[in-house]
Fold each of these.
Amino acid sequence: MPKCEVTPNSPNVNKCVGAKPPAVELHIPIKNLSSRNLQTTNTPSGNIHFREQKGYFQRLRTMMNSLLIVLFFALPFISIDGRQAILLDVSQQQFFFFGITLWPQDFTLLAWIFIAAAFSLFFITVFWGRVWCGYLCPQTAWTFMYVWIETRIEGSSNKRKQLDKAPWSASKIAKRTTKHLLWGLTALLTGCAFISYFIPARELYVDIFTSNASFWVTCWVWFFAVCTYLNAGWMREQMCIHCCPYSRFQAVMFDANTKTVTYDAQRGESRGPRKRKQQTSLNEPTLGDCVDCNLCVEVCPTGIDIRNGLQYECINCGACVDACNETMLKFDYKQNLIGYMSENDIKGVRYTYWRSPRFLGYGIAVIIMLIVIGLDLHGRSEIQLNVIRDRQSLYRETADNKIENTYQLKIRNKTQETKQYQLAVDSEMPFSLIANPIITLAAGEQLDYPVTVLADRDNLASGRKIIQFSVTDIKQPDQQVSQKTGFFSP
Ligand code: SF4
Ligand code: SF4
């Protein structure tokens, strides 16, 4: 008599030793893949202690996550011309970015950059699904860093599960205390790193660790430290599953050519255990390539079984791909039973991205945004000029038969060096300026400059005339701004 059992991890599949397994219902019939319906899977309650996995995609992910973390901490320490290269100085309302100074008026440029980044993300998603989540999202990077610390102190996933259940002892208290202290220190450093994009980094770290920082700076650092600790230490995958909006709308960017982590159900089913090196086609013709080792579930940071189909909890980290490839290697089966595959890859359909409307749409949008950013940067002036007319009176008549109009000029030097400017007024009529035309402004300085423009009454027709103020950098005449305004006479 054949002996059969039902595994808890794959309740739909009978494991039968000594008998051909009965036909089973595929978890994702291929016909359903075309719709790419998203399925949800209940995640285990409490912390998920997933296994550490090694392999190609895990090396790639670790490398990219590490690069992100190193850049995040190191960038505020890079200086250009004695100034922090990236600094959002809220009090001065200036944003320094590698030698460029952006003012609130320039924030359209930042808006373009954000829009371009969003379209780039959509564009990449069309090709590689949620690859951003697995490889570059800070939530993933910090979560894996926290889990790495946890693993070094508490041991493998099985040991961590046992420790969770074990009664409190001196050893458990020591391990938990060490872990939380290290998590706390990492969180505090992360809080400092985040605030160092707003406050000069070198002083900030010293001030925080010597308790010399101001009350509000300390509050903000601790606020971000607590957020990091809760996020990466406790919330982890819950943030991806319940809070991240990207996971909810990613499906609209997918099409049949999107390569995302997918289980090849056609090849894998019927799943079932077997001896190593057993050739399914010879000994168990009805068995698929999935040996039901459950490793793909054990390594998953969001606790899902990718064999149940595409799920919004999947962050495309590739851990299950590496785990399954390891198993396939042991059984001498073909790689990529789970892999970065598209629906068309599985069906064996040849395809080209160029014809995809999403590829074209997002690609064109990215190119347009890059052109807009280029034009914005090219047209950016290093001088800012605002002309405001005197609101008290339209004009004044002087004793020597002249008409004068008064204006308030707001001139800003948007560079990081002292500049000398030439002020001029242009018009078809002969006007003269009653103000010093040479203006010196320190780096970032804004000057409120009152000027009076004078004209002979005999030369003026009545009504409003157009005049133009211009401010020119004396050393760089190509840096010039001008603004038109009205000149009134009786
Ligand atoms: S790792 Fe591969 S072989 Fe093992 S259960 Fe998952 S899909 Fe099946
Ligand atoms: S299913 Fe695979 S790729 Fe998706 S989150 Fe889990 S381990 Fe990562």
Amino acid sequence: MAKMDYPGLLSTLSQAASSPSIQTGLTRTEQQNLYQACAKLSACVETPQDRLLKGSFDFILPTILRLAIDIGIFTLFNEDDSVQEFDVSEIATRTKTDQVLIYRIMRFLITFDMFDVTPEGRCKANTFTKSFRSGTGAYDTVILLSGLTLPVFSRLPAYFQKTGNTLPENAKMGLFQDAHDTDLPVYDWLNHRKAERDAFHQVMAASESLNDSVWAHYLPQNWFLDKFASGSSDVTLVDVGGNSGKVLNAFLHRLPTPQARLILQDIPDVIQGEYKDVPLCRTHENASQIEKMGHSFFDPQPVHGASLYVLSRVIHNWPDKEALIILQHIQAAMNDQSTLLICDCVFSDQLGKVPYTDATSDMIMMAVFSSLERSEGHFRSLLESVGLELQKVWRDPLNGTLLTVLEVVRKKQLA
Ligand SMILES: C[S@@+](CC[C@H](N)C(=O)[O-])C[C@H]1O[C@@H](n2cnc3c(N)ncnc32)[C@H](O)[C@@H]1O
């Protein structure tokens, strides 16, 4: 193999990095492609030590951003659409905050290009500042990380010491409850924390992973057409724990079916969309075709014999005990023509075959929900124990294991 031209590569990269116009004129996709190529290159050359040191202080940014949000710094800079600039002392006065604290926060955030500085030393809003508001993925992720997730992870070593390294498996008594001093499961706790609750639902509604991918890349259109041709049910699809109706919406985009009866279920608070400013249950342009039903999946499923039941990103939030109850209720409502589609992260049973993002998601499930991302084998045995059968595993080769679709039917009764 030819030896790499090390000096040439270094010079090309240095030149590109020092070009002031490297992002000028690029579309968002081009910018993202370039960013991903740089990330890949970094990953090729960094050592585990480099990676550790690079990521070790990452938690500080969301916490300082949350502080800046709570103090009202972003509100001040976004009071109107004009470009805003302020001296540190003005920010301090207008937010009624210690000037030295403001100075230190601004100095930190400026290093991340989240504000600009004028030649006179005034802090000036830039495109990041102007775009950083509720309803955008970045803002809501900061609220969730700082208010919900980071306190749990900071408690993790102490929790395991206290419990003698016992795996959290109880939805009402795990690391999350220990860190937040509560005995409520996460979704009940969220109901008492407006900022985090709204952020959670915004993040769910905004997450792109389900937009069209499930329907377009996993299951072929013909699969649905065959399924509906063979069924006799008047209900086409029940989206259980469906949140804002994203999955149903993507389904309708992919398969405009004017006759279909589509049901969106979630807990009543979510379904009634009482969360102000959160685009819950708006279900976009197809709203009129989607029936909304307040229903807890821990109660018997009221819709019987639907062609399809969907559980998208639901089961991974629950330990086996609760997962089995959810599955049992759906099994009891299915008939021999019904199919259950479970969209979740489904790991390979082989160690070393799981990408970083999925392994991270598993850690979040353990810490926050006392649950886990399951392997195919684990799913298979859960399903079997409640009279269900895994018929096919649909994977998107471009999407790792993060979202896999499990096609599940009722186990045939022996005559
Ligand atoms: C991680 S979100 C997934 C939402 C959606 N299926 C998706 O893929 O975007 C989990 C959903 O389960 C809902 N949920 C939590 N507890 C529930 C319950 N007891 N009954 C019904 N839905 C519930 C939450 O409100 C939330 O919308």
